[in-house]
Amino acid sequence: MCRWLAYSGRSVPMEAVLFQPEHSLIDQSLNSRLGHTTTNGDGFGVGWYGRHSELPFRYRCLHPAWSDTNLREAARAVRAPLFVAHIRAATGTPTQETNCHPFRFGRWLFAHNGLIRDYPLVRRDLMMSVAPHLFRWIEGSTDSEVMFFLALTFGLERDPQGALEQMVGLIESVGHRHDIEHPINMTVCVTDGQQIVAARYSSERDSRSLFHSTSFRQLRALYPDDPRIIAAGDDAFLVLSEPLIDVQGVWEEIPESTMLVARRGDIQQRCFTPRMPDRDGAR
């Protein structure tokens, strides 16, 4: 089913995270250890924030990440202080560029692993709940993009946690109306270039894997001569579907029904509780 990661810290070449670790995201595209599918070859995408633009850049492709030489060149050339990368294993929607993550609206990027179950049954109801002024910006056909635009509808730009909780609350309500026992399974990431917000939740309380780094200071102590760790800085942070290296104590699993908010070295974990949308607060 998909794997993703998000990095924040000092500007580093993206290849230092995407390609160079022993179990990098590119390795996971061929050999995922914790995913429901071993291979994630139905496209990929990278979104990053540059020094001279408030809006994020994206590179997306429908080909497998492991075979894209342009991705390797771009990851070697581009340095960024915050980026999101995603490798896709499709769950019933077409393999096409517009269905590749991360999705973008204004300053915001969104990536998702998981699915809305029986999506064709609930697709119309969910899409009709997207705010009219946002609807025209939906480009693809995947459930993940609709999740993003529902969160935007419910105020993602003002209150990320509240918007994501209302998005999930609506999906569960619509799913139950269609007799779907467990409507949603997800790990998601949203960022505006200043903060990384990630959530792990599923209706059946058996979500896809999600971890975060514990301390780059600890990594620097373990590997004092590694230039990648030195360049990232002590406040660097990763949230990701699978650990990149097998070192005890470097990674912490994010619990079920939990949201994590990371901003400039400050990491907070909060309970994630779906709720029905406040229509008066929708944009």
TrEMBL record:
It comes from the Bacteria. Gene3D superfamilies: Glutamine Phosphoribosylpyrophosphate, subunit 1, domain 1 (3.60.20.10). Residues 2-283 form the Glutamine amidotransferase type-2 domain. One of its GO terms (molecular function) is transferase activity. Keywords: Glutamine amidotransferase, Transferase. The keyword Glycoprotein does not apply. This is Class II glutamine amidotransferase. It comes from Cupriavidus pauculus. The lineage of its organism: Bacteria, Pseudomonadati, Pseudomonadota, Betaproteobacteria, Burkholderiales.
